[in-house]
Amino acid sequence: MKDAGKRKKPDAHFTEQTDIIANALKEGRHILSEHESKRVLGAYGIPVTKEREAHNRKSFKDALIEIGFPLAVKVSSPHISHKTERGLVHVDIRNQREAMAAYRKITDKNEAEGFPVLVQEMVSGERELMIGLKRDLQFGPCVAFGLGGIFTEIFRDICVRVAPVEKAEALRMMRDFRAHKILNAFRGMPGADMDELARMIMVVGKIGLEEKRIMEVDINPVILDDDGKPVAVDALIALHEM
What is the DSSP string of 42-88? Predict the structure, then answer.
C-alpha cells in the first residue's frame, strides 16, 4: 500500500473542478471521465487514488515511474462504460513488462478513438463500499451509502438521506445498511475509519448543494485500505444538460 500522504490535497478555492465542469459542458459533454471526476472530488477533499493520464507511449512510461508498482491501467474516457467487460481495465500490474502489455491491449482496442490511458495506484483492501449522490426532482440532492463493488446492483444494500447530511446522520447511515458489519475489525483487518467515511458522506452532500451543475455522483468502489482508511478508487460524475 502506497503512502496515502501522496494523494491529492484539496484545492481550497475549487478552481480546478469549476474549470473541469465548465470545459466539459462547453464541449457538449454531460459525463466526466473517471480521471476528471476524481479531480473534482479531490478538490473537495475526497481521498482519491494517485494517478496520471498518458496520451502516448512516452508519457505512459513516465507515469509508471511516477505512480510506481503495483498499479492499474485503464482507458480514460467519458464515453466508454463497462470498461472491465470490454478488456479496457488491467489491475495488479507488478512490472514494466506487464504494464506495456496492458498498454498495447488497451490501445489496440481503442485505436480509432485515441482516448488516453489512465495509470493508477493499486489500493490493497478487500472491503468495497459506495457513496453516491442523485438530484431528485422533489427532494433535491440525496446522498447514498452502502455496499460497493460488483455487487452494488445485485444486493442494492444502500441507505439514502436528503442533503445536507450532518455527522450524526452519516454515522447512522453506516449502521443502517444490512452489511454494516463489514466496517468492523475482522480477521486481521482493522475497523473502518468511521470519522473519515462520515466526512466523505457529508462532503458528497455538500457537493450536491453547492454545485448545481452536477446531477449525479457515483463513487464506487470506495476501498478500505490496509489501515481501514477509505479511498475513492473509481468515480463518475454526471452533469445537467444545460
Answer: HHTT--B--EEEESSHHHHHHHHHHH-SSEEEEE--TT---TTTTT-
- pLDDT of 82-92, one tens digit each? 788 788 999 99
User: Residue 38 and residue 33: Cα distance in Å, rounded?
Assistant: 9
C-alpha torsion 93→99→101→104, nearest 10: 130
pLDDT band at 15, cuts 50/70/90? low
Indicate if the alpha-carbon torsion angle 43, 35, 148, 162 is positive or negative.
positive
The C-alpha atoms of residue 200 and residue 17 are separated, in whole angstroms, by 17
* Separation CA 71–CA 59 (nearest Å): 15
| Measured CA angle at 144 (ends 140, 145), to 5 deg | 160
Q: What is the separation of C-alpha 183 from the centre of its chain, rounded to a whole number of angstroms?
A: 19
- Indicate whether this model's pTM tops 0.85: yes
Domains (ranges, CATH) in the chain? Answer: 8-121 (3.30.1490.20), 127-239 (3.30.470.20)
Q: The C-alpha cell of 169 is what?
A: 446522520
Identify each DSSP E strand in the chain by its residue range. Answer: 51-54, 71-75, 89-93, 117-121, 127-136, 140-147, 158-162, 214-224, 230-232, 235-239
